[in-house]
Amino acid sequence: MQPSHSSDRRPNRGRSVKRGSQKLPVWMLPALVIFGVVGLVTALMVRPAANTSVANVTAEVAPEVGKLAPTFSLSTPDGRTINLADLRGQVVLVNFWATWCPPCRAEMPAIQAAYATYQPQGFTVLAVTANAQPADVSDFFRVRGLSFAPLLDDGRVHTAYRANGLPASFFIDRQGVVRAVHHGAMSEAVITQEVERLLGM
Question: SS3 for 91?
Fold first, then answer.
């Protein structure tokens, strides 16, 4: 004799029952909870920070010394758009950094000193940071008296330049060609040497 399932034969007393619906086995509930949590965490991790600009980057290969630098356009915290391609004719330092990076903070005064000295001769600096709040970047620059351009990246320019470790610096000549790459904090002497070489001084 098969056991009776009296619960299946109870009349519906005011409860909504969907025909054809099936209950999930109890053993599946923990797995569903885990999948849901993992999905939520993943979505939060890949979501760009609010108000950051979406990068427009053109890159066939990662930048190499002696080859054209990947072009990109990014926004400053105050909403201005800067395109690397528009800076042909100038010597450009593209510096990848972050507010939380101690070596990045350590080299900023040296970068500022070089910018103040050589900007009239055609030297400019693009300081690219990823997934940072615009207000935090503006405050960082204001407190330190930095006058070159901070740019907000959604991560794609970092990826195109393979800037996995910070800081990472790329010196680009007047024709848009990468001439030197430095990983880690630079001294003022190193920056001065690279800039004067590219300016032809």
Answer: strand
